[in-house]
Amino acid sequence: MFTVCEFNYGNMETLSCVCDETSNKCWVQHHEKLYDNFAALIKQVQDLLKPENLPIYYQVINFIHTGVSFSCIQDIESYKSSYADWMKTVGTEQVHPCANFGPFDLSEIQSPYISADKLIFYVQDNYTKVPYRVESQYPLCDPKGEIFYNLLPYLKTSDE
Q1: Is residue 92 over pLDDT 70?
Q2: What is the pTM of this model?
């Protein structure tokens, strides 16, 4: 197993995001126990529900659901700039993984927020760079709670 990232919270507590390179399975480790279900983790790590831990909460929930396939968009302006650069290569002689996608309208991307009983945050596919809006029940305490990854809308062109 290898550690992808670690998060410190509370009184020097640590959550480690780990993956097994043989099975491609990913877990969050807390005090030697591995979790692949966010609801089970939240029962043991109630501190994740504190407002100051929201940045850890949404990254951990994304990791449990997607492993290393998607990463949270944290630096919005940097992401928008790199996405614009990425899209400039589409149509060049390079074969590009997102040649058939986008451009997407990035204007709605903002810092994670809670609206009613939903957590909303934004991620990118690490291979294609395609952006998604993620919606999750908040707090996600039900093991059957759903998380939705929705593509952002396409950017409207002047001839539409």
Answers
A1: no
A2: 0.88
